[in-house]
Design brief:
The chain is α/β, with parallel strands linked by helices. It is built from 19 helices and eleven strands. The strands form three sheets. The protein has a five-stranded parallel sheet, with helices on both faces. It has a three-stranded mixed sheet with strand order 4-3-9, with helices on both faces. It is globular and about 65 Å long.
């Protein structure tokens, strides 16, 4: 038996289920990039808000490429389970009902445009990963790529045009991806796109829409075959869209909406005037440590985060990266305790009940190293502070992208392969981080740092 509206009444009695009438909720949110993280994070907050009495905030999920999520969720009427592991109360399971339907953008662009143009749609959220923003290494928009096919830019520009033409109000567009100042970045990228390809909509976008910044945090590993089996036992039925996660969750949102919003703040989200201290801490401490664990851990022969953080050769480097090299570049908000945050992160990384694969974290490193490492390196370098842990992680990434240890899952994999062929092991640090390097727009390493990186790469 498979989870669906018709079978939900036959779930095991200790499994929580939606505390509201799903059929009575209109769609108020369109989410671009529906995947496991959204289903374990924003959709859970929205489910809680509707359970608390909010109405008409159901979600239409949008897949930008593959029909896989639609094909697993829609036979279940959009229902799926979230299983938390490693909590003080043991494993918990609940059914989420917030997702109404799923559209595959390339297959149904008209249906997606219609949904975005509905007056009831007021918020668009995004989890498209760093590479979905189609930025060049210097952070500017790749206009050619942005205009090709069903990208977030073509989709949102079409929505804005339809709403402007119909006299419908604007949208609040929330990036929930790991980009520093993601709202400001998204605003600039969308404005650039509109100025080039939709100039008639550019002023309307600036006047009618907002892109608040957000910080999202929850560790959501890719669901494994064994997870589906355990979920089936827990529910008493199969769930092909199940996600597994940790008990911890956090969502900090800049309170700058152009539209009404769900009561996310009543169910655990934090509405603030400035997200930057929270997002910077998350990017440089959590995400920075995660990437370091990935590349250093894979090089050491580990497969999972909990194995890598338990390695006595790696843990001191991760502690230093978080507590010293990253933390000293962050101006915390009042009451924000960075040392306590690091303590909590170490505990979360060590959650052996959550099998978070290092290879999953290692994907798309070219898009991640800027906000996670390079920004902190630039600040530390300007102050004359050393960063041995971050440099060790950076060297491990450079070695990783050479491809000697298997296929490199990165949108710039071909470019890195060519760089390795041209520069060789002794020239890669210069080719990437020198004055004319690929990342020179973000960070130019000093001569001393280039020598350290070159030695580390040579040793690897």
């Amino acid at each position: 038996m498979r989870l669906s509206s018709a079978t939900m009444s036959r779930l095991r009695p200790d499994v929580s289920r939606p505390a509201y009438d799903r059929d009575a909720q209109a769609v108020g949110i369109v989410h671009l990039g529906i995947g496991a993280f959204h289903r374990a994070h924003q959709a859970v907050f929205t489910d809680d808000a509707m359970a608390g009495g909010d109405r008409d905030w159901a979600i239409t999920g949008v897949s930008l490429r593959s029909p896989q999520v639609r094909d697993t969720m829609m036979p279940q009427d959009g229902l799926y389970s979230v299983k938390t592991r490693g909590g003080t109360d043991g494993d918990q399971a609940r059914i989420i009902g917030a997702v109404r339907d799923v559209i595959v953008a390339p297959n149904d662009p008209t249906g997606l445009a219609d949904r975005l143009a509905m007056p009831s749609t007021r918020i668009v959220t995004l989890t498209v990963t760093e590479k979905g923003y189609l930025r060049r290494p210097d952070g500017t928009l790749d206009l050619e790529a942005a205009a090709r096919g069903q990208t977030i830019y073509t989709i949102l520009a079409a929505a804005m045009r339809a709403r402007r033409t119909a006299g419908i109000g604007g949208l609040t567009i929330l990036s929930c991806d790991n980009l520093a100042e993601n709202g400001q970045v998204l605003t600039g990228l969308l404005q650039t796109y509109c100025d080039r390809f939709a100039p008639e909509d550019a002023a309307w976008f600036a006047r009618e829409c907002t892109c608040p910044s957000t910080m999202v945090d929850r560790i959501v590993p890719a669901t494994q075959a064994s997870d589906y089996e355990q979920v089936a036992t827990r529910l008493g039925m199969h769930d092909d869209a199940a996600v597994v996660t940790e008990p911890f969750r956090q969502w900090v949102i800049e309170d700058r909406f152009a539209t009404p919003r769900p009561g996310w703040d009543r169910v655990g989200a934090e509405m603030v005037s400035d997200v930057r201290p929270y997002e910077t801490a998350k990017l440089r401490m959590l995400n920075g440590a995660h990437s370091a664990l990935a590349y250093l851990g894979l090089a050491a022969g580990h497969s999972y985060v909990h194995q890598a953080i338990a390695d006595p050769a790696l843990r001191p480097m991760i502690e230093r990266l978080m507590r010293i090299e990253a933390a000293r570049t962050i101006a915390p908000a009042p009451g924000q305790d960075l040392d306590a945050y690091a303590d909590a992160l170490i505990a979360r990384f060590g959650n052996a009940a959550l099998s978070h694969r290092l290879a999953q974290i290692a994907m798309d490193g070219s898009q991640k190293i800027g906000p996670r490492w390079l920004d902190a390196l630039a600040i530390n370098q300007s102050r004359g502070d050393d960063c041995p842990a971050t440099l060790a992680a950076l060297a491990a990434w450079v070695i990783h992208v050479c491809g000697d240890h298997g296929a490199v899952d990165d949108p710039m994999a071909d470019q890195f392969r060519q760089l390795w062929e041209q520069a060789g092991r002794n020239g890669m640090a210069e080719a990437l981080f020198g004055p004319k390097g690929l990342y020179a727009g973000r960070w130019v390493a000093s001569d001393a740092t280039l020598r350290i990186l070159t030695d580390l790469i040579a040793q690897g």
